[in-house]
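Structure ticket #2291
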Amino acid sequence: MNLFRIELLKTYVKWRSYIAFIAIGIVVPLVMIAMKLQGDAMVKTLTRNLPRDILLGGNILNGYFVTYFVLNALWIHVPFLLTLVAGDQLAGEGAAGTFRLLLTRPASRSSILAAKYATTLLYTFTVVAFLVAVSVGLGILLFGTGALFVPGKSLTIIAAGEAPWRLLLACLLATWGMWVIASLAFFFSSLVDNPLGPILGTMAVIIVFYVVSGLPVDLFRAIRPYLFTSYLDIWQKALEQPIVWSEMVHSGLILGGFSVGFYLVTWYIFVRKDILS
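Resolution: structure written out below.
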């Protein structure tokens, strides 16, 4: 626990740890303001494909809907913000030349690695929770509450009383998915002594996987189930009506397997690594 506290302190005293929070604190209000000004046009676009005999009552453009919109719009950018810290956990020590000093402590390499990984996971959770909290709080302040309308192949409507816990579940599932990204960056961080490498490596993997997933090629369709990016939208399963729990658990187990796998490979590399600086 003492190691964990030390790693938390080391992480949160670095200015780069706050880039994600600053970016979210700027971008989310800007998106909210734009939606406040252009909200009517968005509602018309959302409902134009509905049969004319269906009448929707209540406040469609409410805090819960704009939260969904923000999450859906910004989700592709969140991994980059996370790699700034996750990729620095081990590579940053190498770049600063502090690994030898770090390993003079009586704690084992496994304990040090576990403390750094736990710090990475906690940081990831705080970033996702901050994104959701700012979106919900500012959304309710500007737009009020109401039923949550989730666009897609069909329009899903979640009652206002049910929307808060659905969004909470979506936050937890989103964190679960982002832990895979953080674990991948953490793994790359064990291979190099420059934090830039893990950041670029992680983003390159994500881009390649998304491209492969999106191309309408039979070969790529066959390998799509083996790519973790195919399951990162797990948070959206919390907003389905009804929730298909079996699919959610299946996706969650696969994502968890990737996170554990990346950590185990990182552990194997770290405990055998020659520390030269």
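Closing remark: Residues 2-272 form one domain.
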